[in-house]
Amino acid sequence: MNIIFLGPPGSGKGTHAQRVSEDMGIPRISTGDMLREQMKNGTPLGREAQAFVEAGELVPDGLVIKMLQERLAQPDCAHGVIFDGFPRTLPQAEALAQIADIDVVVNMEIPDEVIVERMQGRRVCPACGHTTHVEQLGDSQSCPKCGQGLTIRKDDLPETVLQRLRVYHEQTQPLIAHYQALGLLRSADSSGAVETTRANVRAALA
Ligand code: ADP
Ligand code: ZN
């Protein structure tokens, strides 16, 4: 079973893709997490990607496609994967069609205004990569998974969020019509509370 989670930044794709991954016992592949890991480790790919990511731009298709192909060749992907943040452009969708059969695309629907508000509270753990929101943290501002102090992603600064939204509308939104035409698209409203969205995602996959 191969599932794509499609949606703008801040739509909760990562959170819900992770839950579905755990429920179904198939890995989640987040190109954003993979790129941040490469950047943290200062690999050649990470160094090449960094300026794009920090500016809120997309990393060039060739780099991301190659990285994804290598990941998909690993044995844990044999029984399907959850794609989170890939594909993000039509060329990426076409490249993916050559290497995997997609069963369903969950489109996370949320208005831009809600996104901007949400992203201001987003925090990430520099140690384990866990993403969370200040409203879910209570008094402690440390990582609920590993205890490390949380940080704000550079690309979550307000100007960059607006840029990422522009990039989403220009380059990623066309994938909605693309997958709709292929009969694969299911929508899940993700503008409400986490548990409401979780139910919507479940319904979309039922
Ligand atoms: P979000 O969904 O919140 O924007 P991600 O972690 O998925 O966050 O992506 C963060 C950044 O990583 C993107 O803004 C982009 O620069 C880069 N990136 C991630 N996935 C891709 C991709 N498939 N193609 C190009 N760039 C990507
Ligand atoms: Zn952590």
TrEMBL record:
<keyword id="KW-0418">Kinase</keyword>
<feature type="binding site">
    <location>
        <position position="122"/>
    </location>
    <ligand>
        <name>ATP</name>
    </ligand>
</feature>
<feature type="binding site">
    <location>
        <begin position="85"/>
        <end position="88"/>
    </location>
    <ligand>
        <name>AMP</name>
    </ligand>
</feature>
<comment type="subunit">
    <text>Monomer.</text>
</comment>
<dbReference type="InterPro" id="IPR033690">
    <property type="entry name" value="Adenylat_kinase_CS"/>
</dbReference>
<feature type="binding site">
    <location>
        <position position="31"/>
    </location>
    <ligand>
        <name>AMP</name>
    </ligand>
</feature>
<feature type="binding site">
    <location>
        <position position="153"/>
    </location>
    <ligand>
        <name>AMP</name>
    </ligand>
</feature>
<keyword id="KW-0862">Zinc</keyword>
<dbReference type="GO" id="GO:0044209">
    <property type="term" value="P:AMP salvage"/>
</dbReference>
<comment type="pathway">
    <text>Purine metabolism; AMP biosynthesis via salvage pathway; AMP from ADP: step 1/1.</text>
</comment>
<dbReference type="InterPro" id="IPR006259">
    <property type="entry name" value="Adenyl_kin_sub"/>
</dbReference>
<feature type="binding site">
    <location>
        <position position="192"/>
    </location>
    <ligand>
        <name>ATP</name>
    </ligand>
</feature>
<feature type="region of interest" description="NMP">
    <location>
        <begin position="30"/>
        <end position="59"/>
    </location>
</feature>
<comment type="similarity">
    <text>Belongs to the adenylate kinase family.</text>
</comment>
<keyword id="KW-0547">Nucleotide-binding</keyword>
<dbReference type="InterPro" id="IPR027417">
    <property type="entry name" value="P-loop_NTPase"/>
</dbReference>
<dbReference type="GO" id="GO:0005737">
    <property type="term" value="C:cytoplasm"/>
</dbReference>
<protein>
    <recommendedName>
        <fullName>Adenylate kinase</fullName>
        <ecNumber>2.7.4.3</ecNumber>
    </recommendedName>
</protein>
<feature type="binding site">
    <location>
        <position position="36"/>
    </location>
    <ligand>
        <name>AMP</name>
    </ligand>
</feature>
<dbReference type="InterPro" id="IPR000850">
    <property type="entry name" value="Adenylat/UMP-CMP_kin"/>
</dbReference>
<keyword id="KW-0067">ATP-binding</keyword>
<feature type="binding site">
    <location>
        <position position="164"/>
    </location>
    <ligand>
        <name>AMP</name>
    </ligand>
</feature>
<dbReference type="GO" id="GO:0046872">
    <property type="term" value="F:metal ion binding"/>
</dbReference>
<feature type="binding site">
    <location>
        <begin position="10"/>
        <end position="15"/>
    </location>
    <ligand>
        <name>ATP</name>
    </ligand>
</feature>
<dbReference type="Pfam" id="PF00406">
    <property type="entry name" value="ADK"/>
</dbReference>
<keyword id="KW-0545">Nucleotide biosynthesis</keyword>
<comment type="function">
    <text>Catalyzes the reversible transfer of the terminal phosphate group between ATP and AMP. Plays an important role in cellular energy homeostasis and in adenine nucleotide metabolism.</text>
</comment>
<feature type="binding site">
    <location>
        <position position="92"/>
    </location>
    <ligand>
        <name>AMP</name>
    </ligand>
</feature>
<keyword id="KW-0963">Cytoplasm</keyword>
<dbReference type="GO" id="GO:0005524">
    <property type="term" value="F:ATP binding"/>
</dbReference>
<dbReference type="GO" id="GO:0004017">
    <property type="term" value="F:AMP kinase activity"/>
</dbReference>
<feature type="binding site">
    <location>
        <begin position="57"/>
        <end position="59"/>
    </location>
    <ligand>
        <name>AMP</name>
    </ligand>
</feature>
<keyword id="KW-0479">Metal-binding</keyword>
<keyword id="KW-0808">Transferase</keyword>
